Amino acid sequence: MCANVFGVLKSLFGKPFDGGKRMDHGGPQDQQQPYHPQHPAMMRLYEVQKEVSTLGPQVCTFSGLQNDREYKRMERELTQLLLQVDQVDTEGKLELQGARKRAAQEVEGLLRYLEENASHPSRLAIEELSNAARELVDERVVEPQRAGGVAEINDELVDALQELVLRLTQIKTEGRVPLRKARYRALTRLCAVQDVLESRTPQQTLSLPLSGDTHEAVNRINQVMVKVSMARSQLVALLMGLSGRDSCAHLSRILTELQVELDALDVSGNAAIRNYRKQVVEEINGLLKHLDLEGEGDDTRRYDLAQNNSIREIEAVRAHVSHLREGVLRHCVVGDLSFRPKAELQSLLTHLDQVDTAKNPCIREARRRAVVEVQAIVTFLDLREALVCRQPGPEEHPSHRAVWLVLGSLSDLQAQVLGFDGKRADKSYMMLEELLTKQLLALDAVDPQGDASTKVARKQAVKFAQNILNYLDMKTDEWEY
Questions:
Q1: Which residue from 50, 114, 246, 432 puts its CA 20 to 30 A from 262's CA?
Q2: Which CATH number is 38-119's, of 3.90.1150.10, 3.40.47.10, 1.20.58.120, 1.20.58.220?
Q3: Compositionally biased, Basic and acidic residues: which spans (predicted)?
Q4: Which residues, in sequence order, are CB contacts of 212 under 8 Å at separation 6+?
């Protein structure tokens, strides 16, 4: 849309209206002179063009909602431009009417694009998840500390925040810059909150050598720690939009003053206290690095991950995995199990493990999905080998044999899932999903009859079937960076 905006502007205003002659509907006697660029109507349309050229980039990168002040400003200015275009006197001349019509269409296009992005279902979903995170952090972290209590920072809170991060990464943006920007900003703030909450330094009570008294410097550092704890709460409130009074600049000044206070402490001759002070200074630095999020997301390179080096590295691995997968399936079709690139697949897993995600949740998710793709081939090869090598004895429990029969069916279905390249609406997808569900039901119907090995085998087979279903779901969820 944004590329369209400026392409139309060029076609509309890029050529002067001073060439060629036109005939009105009245005939040759009504022949008109070409319109000079300084014709009053054309001058007004050129002024509109300049204002549209200024508003266009703002509209195309706006990532807020319809109730935002910036949205209302742009909507108001575009509406005023539309009224001004409508008031241009064309004197009934077709050329002027055409220019006015194209100018109106351009402004209407910007208005429509602004409204579509601000009210897009994905934008509303981003806001819904952001609000859920805001409520969670407010209840568990911000409010308790404001009331003089202690924040509830535990595994449950960390897991809940991680679930919200994962759900944010799965929101579709359709390649729209405003939606990508909104998702990126929400993710960076939530990930910053996670980092702040997980990097707390506990207070210490180090003693002087040969003395039971606490070192004076430790007491001073602990006092600073209390202020750092308050600053952490203020930072979390800022990141989540829960602070009406504080600002990043104000909090930055407070943290910098705490650093100066720590630097002035005399901790010479005591390595333990020196190390404690170093930890607190590092924590302050960790809080300071999150205070530059005010303009985060304004740089397109930050949220347009198609150009990210880590993403390119992951995509190169995925291309290699795709080639190996095709080879494995091609050999399996003819019953040839000699092609077993497990060492190559393991090296790809090692490569993926070394990819730098820079704590970016979208890159993390891209890497996770690539790992799942590799592991799917590895488990397929392992099961095929196990089925070929299996030599059941006469004393094998009937229930155990039943589990292996299901595993044989699952192996065939997994080959189809590995080769599937469609969408969820496809009949082949629904057929695979139904067949896999039937295998789960078949496993559920197996009665171990007290046989321990059957219980273990059935549990592993159920997990295997669920992993295949999850992999099929992942292949068709149309996830994007």
A1: 246
A2: 1.20.58.120
A3: 18-27
A4: none
